[in-house]
Amino acid sequence: MKHVPALAVLVVLAGCQAKEAEAPPPVRPVLTTKVEIRTAETFGPFAGTVEPRYQTQAGFRVPGRMVARDVYVGDLVPKGARLAALDPTVLQFAVTRARADVTDAEAQLANTSAVETRQRTLFEGGNVTQAALDSAVAGRDTAAARLAQAKAALQKATDELGYATLKADVDGVVTAWNAEIGQVVSAGQAVVTVARPDIREAVVDIPDGLMAGIKAGTAFTVTLQAAPGITATGKVREIGPLADPATRTRRVRMTLVDPPEAFRLGTTITVALERTTPPRITLPVTALLEDGTRTSVWVVSTDGKTVSRREVAVVARDDDAVTLTDGLKAGETVVTAGVHSLKDGQAVRLAASGL
Question: Using CB atoms within 10 A as the burial measure, which of 97, 159, 232, 352 is most buried?
Fold first, then answer.
């Protein structure tokens, strides 16, 4: 067997190494995402309920035992409708007594008026003294005062008898009962709550730290949780001055502008607000390539075959994403995985393309 000269072997090895050096870099598969520039952000959503702006906790103006309850929670009641009633027996006795006092006072006034007339006639004839006439006049005036007092007492007793019936002050809907038939209630005690359904509000609790920029008149989009396709506009009417010590939220009331009938009292809703922001781009944190003072991303060429490195400006980041304000254009493709194994101009295969 003939031996190959050592010089020839070295020449062959050098040629192989040259061919390997000239070989193109491998095509690397990468994951990518399209750049979207956002100019608005959604504030929310926050959950809440539909509540009435005006509601009244009605009660009897006199004490007594409740003997009737004519409506139930959820019932619509017109103005003047009877809601509940007290046992009127004692109040009726008071009216009867007051009427008797008026009759007695009227008789006393008639008698003293007749005496005053006779005494005046006798005085004019010189048959009685001035003192006798003055006494008769005083008796008549006292009887008149007693009659006025008796009539006032009768009016009071009659009014109190009327107060034994609790009526609705406005057209509304019954939202709560706080007393039952047979219960003895005191004057002014809350018995039933009636709400006006014509003016409705969205009531939500918003974290105190997010309240900056929210003021009276700010318009939110209000959506029914049960039917997301039904929406209305809610304008902030009132902001709670203090945060709840337990939840650190502040209660916000929003007046609903011409809400659909589906926004019934007690309905669960969500509120959100679209706010304009400076243009910004959000990418996965895995798309970022950092070395020293340079922060950049890999941008895929328009033909989808190679990548190039481009510096970007990062304004915010968290565990999952970064926010950029400069360096990219809408619609460009950015590599989101394998950024540390790429070089400028390297050929890539987009996982989504299936190539």
Answer: 232
Dihedral of CA atoms 193, 238, 268, 200 in degrees, nearest 10, equals: 60
Backbone angles phi, psi at 211, to 5 degrees: -85, -10
- Residue that wins the pLDDT comparison between 44 and 69: 69
CA 6 – CA 4 distance, rounded (Å):
6
Paired tokens of 268: 């669960």
- Residue 97 tokens read as 């007594």
C-alpha 130/C-alpha 273 separation (Å) is: 89
* Cα(237)–Cα(242) distance, integer angstroms: 16
The string of pLDDT tens digits covering residues 109-123 is 999 999 999 999 888
CB atoms within 10 A of CB 300: 18
Q: Using CB atoms within 10 A of its CB, is residue 202 exposed (0-12), middle (13-18) or buried (19+)?
A: buried
Count of alpha carbons within 13 Å of 164, Cβ hemisphere only?
Answer: 20
How many other C-beta atoms can be found within 10 angstroms of the C-beta atom of residue 293? 6
Q: What is the 3-state secondary structure (H, E, C) of the chain?
A: CCCCCHHHHHHHHHHHHHHHHHCCCCCEEEEEEECCEEEEEEEEEEEEEEEECCEEEECCCCCEEEEEECCCCCCEECCCCEEEEECCHHHHHHHHHHHHHHHHHHHHHHHHHHHHHHHHHHHHCCCCCHHHHHHHHHHHHHHHHHHHHHHHHHHHHHHHHHHCEEECCCCEEEEEECCCCCCEECCCCCCEEEECCCCEEEEEEEEHHHCCCCCCCCEEEEEECCCCCCEEEEEEEEECCCCCCCCCEEEEEEEEECCCCCCCCCCEEEEEEEEEEEEEEEEEHHHCEEECCEEEEEEECCCCCEEEEEECEEEEECCCEEEEEECCCCCCEEEEECHHHCCCCCEEEEHHHCC
CB 321 within 8 A of CB 282: yes
Q: How many residues does the chain have?
A: 355
Nearest to 188 by CA among 26, 59, 332, 339: 59
Q: Determine if the pTM surpasses 0.85.
A: no
Query: Which of 324, 289, 296, 300 lies closest to 310 in space, CA to CA?
Result: 296
